[in-house]
Each structure stands twice: as structure tokens, then as C-alpha cells.
Amino acid sequence: MKRRYLTYILLFGFPLFGCQNKVNAQSTYQQEWMALKQQNEALAFDADIHLSDAETALDKKFFQLRKQLLTDTNKQKISLFNSSFEELKPLIERSTLFEIFQSMPKGGLLHTHSGGFTDVKWVIATARKYKEAYVYDQADNDQFIFGQLGFFEGKVPEGFVSLNKKLTSDPGFEKKLADLLILKRDQLCTYTDYWIEFEKRFKRISLLLPYRPFFKEYYKKGFMDLVQNNVQHVEIRYIFEELYDFKKGKYPLKTSITDLQDIVKEIQKEHPEFSLKLIYSSFKFLDPKSIEKQLETAFELKKEFPDVISGFDLVADEAAGNSVYSFRENWVKLDELSKKYGVKMPLFLHAGESNSVFNKNILDMSVLNNPRIGHGLNLIYFPKTMELIKKQNKLVEVSPISNQVLGYVSDMRNHPARVLLSNGIQCSINSDDPSVYGYEGLGYDFWVAFVYWELDVKALKKLVFNSINYSSLNESEKKKALTHLTQQWDDFVQKTNQKLK
Ligand SMILES: [Zn+2]
């Protein structure tokens, strides 16, 4: 009996032990798998967000809505991943998700530009009401380009014709002009020299914006569009120039600030939560000497309007302009200027709006006092800098649609921001130059981020609240803004849950 038992153990026992080992190994494997899953999740940018029961319920509904959208587009053989924003825009607008993102409180828009944030169709319709509005209807030359708008009284430059007369006599011109003011990436595979075309859009309206009567209407419309889109705060990369009218001529630079303050005050009568900051912006293609002058002006304005001017930026195509590093003498002098003017001038530089590792602008971001980074697309290729940006708690302002229109990303699933978010880099969602891309508000960008990056309510909430937490609002303004946003958010969660029952 004993022997038989021993034989049994000898014959079957070892395999049995082996089997037990296998079970152990599998359970260690499972444990490790679960631990790794949690460890990865703990590194993500939204790890500190804990959802309420209502938010968890909403999350499940959002998940189903996206699933349904993917099933439906699949059935209809719509190439969701290889189509441009332009091609998908009607589909986006018809979707339930879009309706939800339009109504979602979005906090602040931290990255947009003075020349690109008000509906171009409105620009045309409003400009034509001024008898002094003209349009250039000749072929491009060194000074003017076809479709360029401007206000003139008395001597009108050669080649310009009355805008209203032109629109009345040529019924097709309104659409033609709108197309000249909007940049489309019709299909992902068509060739366009995007930055050349992009800059032409700004040039075409550049003479309109400093005309004081139009200026006031333009910003009021832009701010109201944001308010209606549930955006409570905006920070504009603002190119300062002297406003003018035909009665008084030119006004000092600060008139644009006091005018904007007046417009904001008017909006605040009905929407007391609305706030504005301006980031003094100049151009990367200028030389350090000119930037020195620009910085002096920025400091002068900030000294007088410390609550309006939040910082300084340099814009333009990074592939064509000077590197951030080439302005090092300017950055080194910032402390000295801060002492001279008694105010700080944080930088909000565009950096890494590029797919190339030869563009090293992102390196400066961790060395400079640059609390927010515009775009940061190639940050993922600089792991040490990525680690520093995370440690320094700096935010990357992501503009998904802009990145696709300008040719940096095609399939939105491959947007670098996904890598940043999973690595714990804080980001916010922005529209950059929505009017140039043919839309208003932030709903489209949130739709794109949610659908293509497989976000959940936790991520959405973090992105929304980041836009206030990383804004340039001062501590008391931020506190007020967060109270408003929290209340709006809770309201949105409750109402949307009811709607999606
Ligand atoms: Zn920008």
C-alpha cells in the first residue's frame, strides 16, 4: 500500500506538483498584470480624478454613444480614421455626442489668436455694412493679395473696390471670399503649402482688425460665441497694433486694452463669470533686437494692466522662423526687466509645433519660466524634457483640429497628445484659430479628442478643469472661476444623465 502510494506520488505526484506550480505562476501572472494595469493608470494625467456616481453613470452612457457612432460609421463604410475634419464636419454636427460637447461647460480657452477667432462669414457680413470697407480684387502683388479686406476713406489704394458693391454685383463672390478666409484640408492626401496659405488668411483680414469701430464689434462677437459655447474664460495670443478711425486717426496701444475691458464689462452684465487675459505676442521671424523692443512694450503694458496682460509669446511657422534658443539674450534679460517694471512676464511660447527632432524649441520649455506650452507636438521625442515638464507641472495646450488642418497629424488616433496624457503631462483642449478652420467654439475639438483618443468622463473632466487651474487668472479670480465651473459641471452631468436615459 505504502509502496503503491509512493509509486503514485512518483508517477503522478510530480506532475501534480508541477500543475500546482502552473496555477501559482498563472496567479502571479494575473497579479502582475493587474498591478501593471493599475501602475499605468496611476501615471496618467487624470489619475487624481474620482468620479461621483452620477459621473460614472454618465461615463457608461458616453462609452455607449461612442461605440454606437463607430458601429454606425462602420456600417455606412465611412472612413472615420482616414478622413479630414472638413470631410467629417457634417457627420460631427449631426451626432448626439456633438450636441453634448456643445452644451458641456468647457472652462477656459487658453490658446487662440486675435486674428482667428471670429466667424469669417460674420466678418464679411459686418464689414460690408461699412461704406469705407474695400476688397482687393486684383492678382497678388508684393503689397496686397486677392481677397484682402481693408477700410479706407479718401484715397483708396489701387486695385481695391467697394466691398458692398462687389458683393452685390457678383453673387458668387461672398462664397469665394469666405473660401479665401478659411483654410481647409479637404482631403488628407491633397498637397497644400499649409503655412503659406494659413498666413494669407491672416493677411486678408489684417487691415480690418485695427479699425476701431470694427475692432469693437469683432471682439464682442467672438466673446459672445464663446459664452454661448459655455466657455467662461479666454486667453488670446494678441498682436498689438495701434487702433485707428477716420475721425481721430491713431490711438495709443493701450486703447485696445481699455476697449476690450469695456466689452468684457458689458458681457459680464449678463455673464458675470466671463473673463479675459491677453498674451502679448510677437513673431519668431523677427531678430533679437526687435524682440527686445517688443518685450519692453509688453512690460510697459503689463505694468499698467497687470490683470489683463498675462505673459509673452512668439508665433509663426516654427520650421521657417528663428529658434526659441536664438532669442536667449532676450530671455536672460527677463529678470532685469521684471525688476525695472515691477511685474513678472511669464512666457507662453509656442514650441514643438513640429514633427521633427531637429526642431529643439521644446528643450527651452523646461529651462525657461514657461508655465504653458503651445502645441508641444514633438515633446514625445524628448523623453528627458517630457520628464521635466511633468515634474515642473507645466501644461501643454493641445489644438487637435489645428494640428490636422496644418498637416502635423492625419489619423487623429495617432495624435501625440495621447502619449502625453498617458505619461501624466497635463494638457488642455484648444481651438487655436477656429475661424480660419471654419468653425466656432470648442465643441468640435472635444468631439475629436473624445472619439479618437478613447477618452472617458474622468479625462474630459480633468481637461476641462485644467483649463482654469492652469489659466493666468490670479488666485481669487481662479477660485471664483472654479466655483462657477464646478456648479456648471455638476448641472451638466445631471441634465445630460436625464437626457440620455
Ligand atoms: Zn497658436
From TrEMBL:
Chief place where the protein resides: secreted
Check the record and name the Gene3D superfamilies matching this protein: Metal-dependent hydrolases (3.20.20.140)
Keyword list, A-Z: Hydrolase, Metal-binding, Secreted, Signal, Zinc
Compartments where located: Secreted
All residue ranges annotated as the Adenosine deaminase domain in the record: 224-485
Under the heading PANTHER family, the entry gives: ADENOSINE DEAMINASE, ADENOSINE DEAMINASE 2
Q: What protein name is recorded for this chain?
A: Adenosine deaminase CECR1
Print the organism lineage. Bacteria, Pseudomonadati, Bacteroidota, Flavobacteriia, Flavobacteriales
